[in-house]
């Protein structure tokens, strides 16, 4: 996931991405704090990117319905909605039905990776060319530094492009077309449809990649053992992020951490994940900042994986949310919940479901919290 940006920077970043894809853009700020990025191409195509720039934004179904009507009236060819916040389930359903692309910080990370647009992102985040790689490793919980103590003799984005060129039109066997918004007139990386493991790649071709990996290991060794949980054992971890619904005006401050496991043991009882699924345990230290009682129940939480939302996994005779998640003014208490998601899930986003009684929540990752399901 790309880092949180200031609202104005987020809008400019999106405009620059469209510019890289061949769009001439203009930006219109609206009275309610949202933006329209209007794009035109030399072939006459017209596009509109509807931007909700804050992390507190919540894009509703009504927003999508109005946008669909507007695009129909204006003859828009490419319609996109982007936010640093969250989408309501209804909004996602309307977007799927009407062919509207939805972007968030996770899908935008894919855009940057696939298009080699790290130089665009660095304009707004600073740092060096290796920072996107280090950020991914940190998201997996690996002990890598914020920056490397030395400079690389190459640009990783340029190296990636050179490797792709050497590999011709081969892909990795997956189809992620149109996953990141408006494509450049159907262009792709090639239609070979082959797989990397079928290529006769020479050691000379792989040498720069090996060097880059070695550099990462050396950098990581300065801060501790660099290991990837699950690798080598046939399993894998799900990288978890969270979307806040409020900032400074939050009613609940939630410091959290998460881990992936095949089973949890609570007070001597072991609960195994269903077949072809894995547990994601999320433990939270919740502090009420409100002057009145606030409720954050398990039913209000969801873990979104690949566009699907998963509710909490009930565990018989055990709960991590005593008192039904009710918090008195000023109270601070640890709670936990468990989600059961597909075993091959690579990433997930913790979020609060929309609703009239849902308090504003600010999520902050805290690796000092042990993500365990224990008797409370």
Automatic annotation (TrEMBL):
Residues 167-197 are annotated as: Disordered. Signal peptide: none annotated. It is an enzyme of class 3 (hydrolase). Residues 4-108 form the Restriction endonuclease type IV Mrr domain. InterPro entries: Immunoprotect_excell_Ig-like, Restrct_endonuc_IV_Mrr. It holds the Pfam family Mrr_cat. Its EC number is 3.1.21.-. Keywords: Endonuclease, Hydrolase, Nuclease, Signal. GO terms for molecular function: endonuclease activity; hydrolase activity. This is Restriction endonuclease. The lineage of its organism: Archaea, Methanobacteriati, Methanobacteriota, Stenosarchaea group, Halobacteria.
